Amino acid sequence: MVAIAAHPDGAGYWIAESNGTIHAFGSARHRGDRRGISLAGPIQSLIPASNGSGYWMIGSDGGVFSFGVSFHGSMGGANLAAPIVSGAAGPASGYWLVGRDGGVFSFGVPFLGSTGGLALASPVSSLAAHPNGNGYWLYAQDGGVFAFGVPFYGSIPG
Fold first, then answer.
1. Which of 43, 40, 36, 41 is nearest to 17 (CA)?
2. β-strands 104-107, 95-99: how paired?
3. pTM greater than 0.70
4. Are 24 and 12 in contact, with CB atoms under 8 Å apart?
5. CB atoms within 10 A of CB 143
6. Is the pLDDT of residue 14 over 70?
Protein backbone atom coordinates (compact mmCIF):
# COMPACT_ATOMS: atom_id res chain seq x y z
CA MET A 1 0.00 0.00 0.00
CA VAL A 2 1.50 3.31 -1.05
CA ALA A 3 -1.21 5.97 -0.84
CA ILE A 4 -4.50 6.86 0.80
CA ALA A 5 -6.77 9.65 -0.41
CA ALA A 6 -9.86 10.93 1.34
CA HIS A 7 -13.13 11.38 -0.52
CA PRO A 8 -13.99 15.11 -0.43
CA ASP A 9 -17.17 14.42 1.56
CA GLY A 10 -15.08 12.97 4.39
CA ALA A 11 -17.13 9.76 4.46
CA GLY A 12 -14.75 7.47 2.57
CA TYR A 13 -11.32 6.95 1.04
CA TRP A 14 -9.31 5.10 -1.57
CA ILE A 15 -6.14 3.09 -0.94
CA ALA A 16 -3.65 2.47 -3.76
CA GLU A 17 -1.12 -0.33 -4.09
CA SER A 18 2.17 0.17 -5.94
CA ASN A 19 0.99 -2.30 -8.62
CA GLY A 20 -1.99 -0.07 -9.52
CA THR A 21 -4.71 -1.83 -7.54
CA ILE A 22 -7.29 0.48 -5.92
CA HIS A 23 -9.46 -0.32 -2.87
CA ALA A 24 -12.50 1.88 -2.15
CA PHE A 25 -14.17 2.31 1.25
CA GLY A 26 -17.22 4.23 2.50
CA SER A 27 -18.56 6.80 0.03
CA ALA A 28 -15.52 6.45 -2.26
CA ARG A 29 -16.43 4.45 -5.35
CA HIS A 30 -14.08 2.18 -7.27
CA ARG A 31 -13.75 3.76 -10.74
CA GLY A 32 -11.09 1.40 -12.09
CA ASP A 33 -7.44 0.55 -11.65
CA ARG A 34 -4.35 -0.87 -13.37
CA ARG A 35 -4.45 -4.26 -11.64
CA GLY A 36 -2.71 -6.90 -13.72
CA ILE A 37 -1.37 -4.40 -16.28
CA SER A 38 2.38 -3.86 -16.55
CA LEU A 39 3.48 -0.39 -15.35
CA ALA A 40 6.63 1.49 -16.38
CA GLY A 41 7.06 2.60 -12.75
CA PRO A 42 5.30 1.82 -9.47
CA ILE A 43 2.32 3.90 -8.39
CA GLN A 44 3.47 6.63 -6.00
CA SER A 45 0.41 8.79 -5.44
CA LEU A 46 -3.36 8.85 -5.66
CA ILE A 47 -5.11 12.16 -6.32
CA PRO A 48 -8.88 12.42 -5.77
CA ALA A 49 -10.87 14.87 -7.89
CA SER A 50 -12.11 17.83 -5.85
CA ASN A 51 -15.73 16.75 -6.48
CA GLY A 52 -15.10 13.07 -5.63
CA SER A 53 -16.08 11.83 -9.09
CA GLY A 54 -12.88 9.83 -9.51
CA TYR A 55 -9.11 9.89 -9.15
CA TRP A 56 -5.75 9.97 -10.87
CA MET A 57 -3.05 7.39 -10.11
CA ILE A 58 0.49 8.68 -10.52
CA GLY A 59 3.47 6.46 -11.34
CA SER A 60 7.10 7.17 -10.43
CA ASP A 61 7.83 7.52 -14.17
CA GLY A 62 5.31 10.38 -14.41
CA GLY A 63 2.57 8.26 -15.94
CA VAL A 64 -0.94 9.41 -15.04
CA PHE A 65 -3.94 7.09 -15.12
CA SER A 66 -7.38 8.72 -14.86
CA PHE A 67 -10.52 6.98 -13.62
CA GLY A 68 -13.83 8.87 -13.60
CA VAL A 69 -11.99 12.15 -14.29
CA SER A 70 -10.46 13.92 -17.29
CA PHE A 71 -6.96 13.08 -18.43
CA HIS A 72 -4.90 16.26 -18.97
CA GLY A 73 -1.52 14.72 -19.77
CA SER A 74 1.43 13.08 -18.09
CA MET A 75 5.20 12.85 -18.03
CA GLY A 76 5.14 9.12 -18.86
CA GLY A 77 7.85 8.36 -21.40
CA ALA A 78 9.72 11.62 -20.70
CA ASN A 79 13.33 11.67 -19.53
CA LEU A 80 12.84 12.99 -15.98
CA ALA A 81 15.66 14.35 -13.81
CA ALA A 82 14.07 12.63 -10.78
CA PRO A 83 11.18 10.23 -10.15
CA ILE A 84 7.70 11.62 -9.48
CA VAL A 85 6.80 11.30 -5.79
CA SER A 86 3.51 13.13 -5.29
CA GLY A 87 0.75 15.21 -6.79
CA ALA A 88 -2.39 17.18 -5.96
CA ALA A 89 -5.64 18.17 -7.64
CA GLY A 90 -6.31 21.71 -8.75
CA PRO A 91 -9.55 23.61 -8.17
CA ALA A 92 -11.36 22.25 -11.24
CA SER A 93 -10.16 19.12 -12.98
CA GLY A 94 -6.41 19.55 -13.39
CA TYR A 95 -3.46 18.37 -11.33
CA TRP A 96 0.16 19.03 -10.40
CA LEU A 97 2.93 16.42 -10.17
CA VAL A 98 6.22 16.86 -8.30
CA GLY A 99 9.51 15.00 -8.61
CA ARG A 100 12.07 14.26 -5.88
CA ASP A 101 14.12 17.19 -7.19
CA GLY A 102 11.17 19.56 -6.69
CA GLY A 103 10.36 19.82 -10.38
CA VAL A 104 6.64 20.60 -10.77
CA PHE A 105 4.58 19.63 -13.80
CA SER A 106 1.16 21.22 -14.38
CA PHE A 107 -1.71 19.65 -16.30
CA GLY A 108 -4.92 21.64 -16.63
CA VAL A 109 -3.78 24.01 -13.85
CA PRO A 110 -1.32 26.93 -13.82
CA PHE A 111 2.39 26.37 -13.26
CA LEU A 112 3.41 28.55 -10.29
CA GLY A 113 7.05 27.56 -9.83
CA SER A 114 9.29 24.76 -8.64
CA THR A 115 12.66 23.94 -7.11
CA GLY A 116 13.68 21.80 -10.09
CA GLY A 117 17.26 22.65 -11.03
CA LEU A 118 18.16 23.90 -7.54
CA ALA A 119 20.53 22.05 -5.22
CA LEU A 120 18.28 20.95 -2.35
CA ALA A 121 19.52 19.81 1.05
CA SER A 122 17.00 16.96 0.97
CA PRO A 123 14.65 15.45 -1.65
CA VAL A 124 11.08 16.66 -2.00
CA SER A 125 8.54 14.09 -0.81
CA SER A 126 5.15 15.76 -1.14
CA LEU A 127 3.06 18.48 -2.78
CA ALA A 128 -0.02 19.97 -1.07
CA ALA A 129 -2.41 22.25 -2.95
CA HIS A 130 -4.17 25.16 -1.25
CA PRO A 131 -7.92 24.44 -1.05
CA ASN A 132 -8.68 27.43 -3.31
CA GLY A 133 -6.31 26.06 -5.97
CA ASN A 134 -4.28 29.26 -6.20
CA GLY A 135 -1.00 27.64 -5.22
CA TYR A 136 0.87 24.81 -3.57
CA TRP A 137 3.56 23.90 -1.07
CA LEU A 138 6.40 21.45 -1.64
CA TYR A 139 7.64 19.51 1.38
CA ALA A 140 11.18 18.10 1.58
CA GLN A 141 12.31 15.12 3.66
CA ASP A 142 14.33 17.37 5.98
CA GLY A 143 11.21 19.40 6.83
CA GLY A 144 11.85 22.19 4.34
CA VAL A 145 8.77 23.86 2.86
CA PHE A 146 8.66 25.79 -0.42
CA ALA A 147 5.62 27.97 -1.20
CA PHE A 148 4.41 28.83 -4.70
CA GLY A 149 1.40 31.15 -5.06
CA VAL A 150 0.56 30.67 -1.37
CA PRO A 151 1.92 32.11 1.90
CA PHE A 152 5.04 30.65 3.50
CA TYR A 153 4.38 29.98 7.20
CA GLY A 154 7.73 28.43 8.12
CA SER A 155 9.53 25.09 8.02
CA ILE A 156 11.53 22.74 10.22
CA PRO A 157 15.15 23.46 9.13
CA GLY A 158 16.79 26.48 10.73
1. 43
2. antiparallel
3. yes
4. yes
5. 13
6. yes
